[in-house]
Amino acid sequence: MFPKFHKLNSGHKIPSIGLGVYLTPVSIAKEISLDGLETGYRHIDSAQVYKNESEVCDAIAEWLKKDPSTNKREDIFYTTKIFDSDHGYELTKKAIEVSLERAKGIDYIDLILMHSPRSDYERRHGSWLALQEAVASGKVKNIGVSNYGIKHLKELLAYPDLKIKPAINQIEIHPWLTRTELAAFCQTEGIVVEAYSPLVRGQKFDDELLLSLAKKYSKTTAQILINWSLSKGYVTLPKTVTKSRLLPNLESDQFKLSPEDIKALDAKDEYFVTGWDPTVYPLDNEK
């Protein structure tokens, strides 16, 4: 019903639904990642600050070895992120090396994101230069950002030595936090919007409209929310540590919400942030 992939401005493809592993404990990160791959996920989203990069990469490597004739590395999209404390050219170069070492069993990283814009112009700029070099090395296929607002994206796009535009801006986005202007800016610039916390961390599962739509379509509340993300043209990253929820989340692309129901969900927008919002972080001249 929906495209299985989005084409990035780099020319690479990214699966429309990915498995998020934020707050997934190290003790189960490998198991749930492997379960996800066996279920049909081909996109897993990690980060250095999640402290489960090694486990996710080990799961991918194990899956690849299970059936080399059908389980191909080129079918997997693995993402990680460089945290704010490692902004700056030299620190980011070292951080990239650390992530590549953890990913040595899978040969390369499909996407590295800057986790947020929370530093300053010089360090953000230096980080982007290091990321561009990583792409040139061939060990990183795509680069992008996370939690960037319009002003941060404009700053990046104006770098005098910009060679590679961000492929992705990963942001919290769901019906209670629609970020219409930011999403439109990204799409105008050819930057794919990637929605994290599409399930609102379960905090709106008792919403009357959401429950009524779940009943109307004979779907779970999670499936309605994932489908809303897909209807907007976003890549979406539902997270679960429960094996039984993996397949239903992945199958959320097999129906379509009506335009009227999408509009009704859009109207829920109330700037409801479930975690943090670095998109409002000030630029140097605003501090």
What do you see in this structure?
The protein has 287 residues and is an alpha/beta fold. The protein has one domain (5-286): TIM Barrel (Alpha-Beta Barrel), CATH 3.20.20. The protein is built from ten helices and ten strands. It has helices at 26-39, 53-66, 89-102, 121-137, 150-157, 180-188, 208-217, 221-231, 243-250, 259-266; strands at 5-7, 13-15, 19-20, 43-45, 77-82, 109-114, 140-146, 168-172, 192-196, 235-237. Strands 3-4-5-6-7-8-9-10 form an eight-stranded parallel sheet. α3 (89-102) links the parallel β5 (77-82) and β6. α1 (26-39) crosses α9. The longest helix has 17 residues, at 121-137. It starts with a strand and ends in a 21-residue tail after the last helix. The mean pLDDT is 98.
Q: Which spans have pLDDT < 50 for at least 5 consecutive residues? A: none
Largest beta-sheet characterization: 8 strands, parallel
Euclidean distance between termini CA atoms: 46 Å
Integer-rounded radius of gyration: 18 Å
The pLDDT mean sits at: 98
Specify the number of helices. 10
How many β strands by DSSP? Answer: 10
User: What would CATH call the architecture?
Assistant: Alpha-Beta Barrel
Report the CATH C-level class.
Alpha Beta
H-E string = EEEHEHEHEHEHEHEHHEHH
Main attributes of the structure:
single chain, 2-dehydropantolactone reductase (A-specific) activity, 10 strands, oxidoreductase, two-stranded antiparallel ribbon, alpha/beta, TIM Barrel, globular, NADP_OxRdtase_dom
